[in-house]
């Protein structure tokens, strides 16, 4: 299916034209038919000659009082059928509709001059083409018709077929974001919402996010028939399970759960209105139109004439403002970088310019000069989802957030614990980690390194598991992780006096590895409880029991000697094989048992595992 929205001044025959093309009545309300004027969105569809794919029309109101409804209809639609009456020519709402289409960046369309039976259509056609040529639509194909006589309708159907046939093919595997343009109830079914599915696929039974809750799709219809699945592009009606009519309405969005970020603060680039080479004044308060949503927003320029703008600015932002601004929305919306929207002045009811979303998770601006720096950062981006660019700006972000921004996570991006790190930032982190460990060692010389949790905090990392990425950097090669701490690789991080005392103990043990030094010898060397604990944490000594300290490889040496004994063996046999006393042999065997290296039978004998 393809979807086309009408556009044009009130009473120029948009609904009549849709009615002639489809044989359906797009005006749904009796009041519309009584007044002969569309006041809300209408919907109809047909199959063009020679095409298997149907075309659906979103018929929008043309009166200036219903511009919000018009924007809700054209916002999600990729192409327009712009209508101008031959007997009236270009009119004020023609301009406003074209301004809106231009601001939204709509590039595909068709000009239709109606009422060609009432006046020569060429003058209206040429005038309209001149206006259209100054917009994103450019020079459109034009067809002159009469809904009353049927003149030109076959030519129009052919032109429509060419239009929809040339539209970009949708991504049916994309994440779903369906902007709701209508909600109602059906007896026996419950709440039904409709919208234009621009990308992705929806199936019966799917779960979709509606704000902060997840809802289930009970049924699907497209063009009045039950279908499953529905693939973009399509006009679709979704029957939602367990959702009241008061819980959903126009402007809401149904999205793939976990794949979109809802934001109420966004950084955007605002282009000048159509036909203007300079920015118009941006009032403090504006309306943001995106999809079918219309949300009030507060404008904060990121810099004005090179000067920072503080949060308490109350005056309007004048025309010399940079076109990069921050919008604070009255309610959060599911947006992504690259989304197109428009701003309207809520007082003057005019289009202020088109919007390109640049960042939906912008940083806070707390320091003086931060707004100007932020504007400079955003000047280098076009809003297209870019994994490397996002990481370069943020340095660190959750994988799920990067995916929700619409970016593909590259295989070469380092990550751990669900986080991704900008590769170019890792050398800086390595340098900072070395400095943090050195500072900790200088302040706490007997500690066996900086605890991993404290190291992560020093580097502003959300998870200590990210330290493995930092330690893998060449700049951190002097460090090693052991026992939940980060310490210098060389010398174990012990003070010189402690390291010398430990060396004396190791020298004593070299010829008699299981002759653990007595308490008096340890005290003589200055190895008290703190020093001994530091040596053990640093891996310089092995504690096998209270007051029993051996060389770090003592367990392996003991197992090698005990392997020569017949199994099982007694404590006495073990003591003799190790060449030590009962004071050392008992805690050593208990240590080996705790390590799973030996086991003890019911008779108290020992055996290697």
From TrEMBL:
Natural source organism: Actinomycetospora flava
Protein name from the UniProt record: SelB C-terminal domain-containing protein
InterPro entries found in the cross-reference section: Beta-barrel_SelB (IPR057335), EF-Tu_GTPase (IPR050055), EFTu-like_2 (IPR004161), P-loop_NTPase (IPR027417), SelB_WHD4 (IPR015191), T_Tr_GTP-bd_dom (IPR000795), Transl_B-barrel_sf (IPR009000), WH-like_DNA-bd_sf (IPR036388)
Keywords: GTP-binding, Nucleotide-binding
Pfam families given in the database record: Beta-barrel_SelB, GTP_EFTU, GTP_EFTU_D2, WHD_3rd_SelB
Gene3D superfamilies: P-loop containing nucleotide triphosphate hydrolases (3.40.50.300), Translation factors (2.40.30.10), Winged helix-like DNA-binding domain superfamily/Winged helix DNA-binding domain (1.10.10.10)
Domain Tr-type G: 1-171
């Amino acid at each position: 299916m393809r979807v086309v929205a009408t556009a044009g001044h009130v009473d120029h025959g948009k609904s009549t034209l849709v009615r002639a093309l489809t044989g359906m009545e797009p005006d749904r309300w009796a009041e519309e038919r009584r007044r002969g004027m569309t006041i809300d969105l209408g919907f109809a569809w047909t199959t063009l000659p020679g095409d298997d794919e149907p075309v659906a029309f979103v018929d929008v109101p043309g009166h200036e009082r219903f511009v919000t409804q018009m924007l809700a209809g054209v916002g999600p639609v990729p192409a327009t059928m712009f209508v101008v009456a031959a007997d009236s020519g270009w009119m004020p709402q023609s301009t406003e509709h074209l301004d809106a289409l231009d601001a939204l960046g709509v590039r595909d369309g068709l000009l239709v001059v109606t009422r060609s039976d009432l006046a020569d259509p060429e003058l209206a056609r040429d005038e309209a083409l001149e206006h259209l040529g100054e917009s994103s639509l450019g020079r459109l194909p034009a067809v002159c018709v009469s809904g009353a006589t049927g003149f030109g309708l076959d030519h129009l159907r052919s032109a429509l077929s060419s239009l929809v046939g040339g539209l970009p093919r949708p991504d049916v595997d994309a994440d779903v974001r369906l902007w709701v343009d209508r909600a109602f109830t059906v007896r026996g079914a419950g709440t039904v919402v409709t919208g234009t599915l621009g990308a992705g696929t929806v199936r019966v039974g799917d779960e979709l996010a509606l704000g902060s809750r997840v809802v289930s799709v009970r049924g699907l219809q497209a063009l009045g028939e039950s279908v499953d699945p529905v693939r973009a592009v399509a006009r679709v009606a979704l029957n939602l399970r367990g959702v009241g009519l008061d819980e959903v309405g126009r402007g809401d969005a149904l999205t793939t759960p976990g794949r979109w970020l809802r934001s109420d603060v966004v950084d955007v680039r605002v282009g000048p209105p159509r036909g203007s080479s300079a920015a118009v004044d941006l009032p403090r308060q504006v309306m943001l139109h995106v999809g079918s949503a219309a949300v009030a927003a507060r404008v904060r320029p990121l810099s004005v004439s090179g000067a920072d703008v503080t949060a308490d600015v109350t005056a309007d932002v004048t025309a010399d403002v940079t076109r990069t601004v921050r919008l604070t929305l009255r309610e959060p919306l599911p947006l992504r970088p690259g989304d197109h929207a428009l701003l309207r002045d809520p007082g003057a009811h005019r289009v202020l310019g088109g919007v390109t979303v640049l960042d939906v998770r912008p940083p806070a601006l707390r320091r003086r000069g931060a707004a100007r720096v932020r504007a400079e950062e955003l000047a280098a981006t076009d809003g297209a989802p870019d994994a490397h660019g996002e990481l370069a700006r943020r340095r660190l972000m959750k994988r799920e957030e990067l995916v929700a921004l619409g970016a593909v996570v590259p295989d070469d991006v380092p990550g751990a614990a669900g986080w991704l790190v900008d590769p170019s930032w890792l050398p800086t982190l390595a340098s900072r980690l070395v400095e943090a460990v050195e500072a900790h060692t200088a302040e706490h010389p007997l500690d066996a390194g900086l605890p991993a949790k404290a190291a992560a905090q020093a580097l502003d990392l959300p998870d200590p598991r990210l330290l493995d990425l930092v330690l893998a950097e060449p700049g951190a090669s002097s460090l090693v992780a052991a026992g939940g701490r980060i310490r210098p690789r060389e010398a174990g991080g012990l003070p010189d006096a402690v390291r010398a005392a430990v060396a004396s103990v190791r020298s004593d043990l070299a010829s008699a590895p299981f002759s653990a030094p007595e308490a008096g010898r340890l005290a003589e060397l200055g190895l008290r409880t703190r020093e001994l604990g530091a040596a053990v944490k640093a891996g310089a000594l092995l504690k096998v029991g209270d007051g029993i300290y051996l060389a770090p490889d003592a367990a392996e040496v003991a197992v090698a000697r005990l392997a020569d004994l017949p199994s099982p063996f007694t404590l006495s046999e073990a003591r003799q094989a190790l060449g030590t006393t009962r004071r050392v042999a008992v805690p050593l065997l208990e240590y080996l048992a705790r390590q799973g290296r030996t086991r003890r039978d019911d008779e108290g004998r020992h055996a290697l595992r």
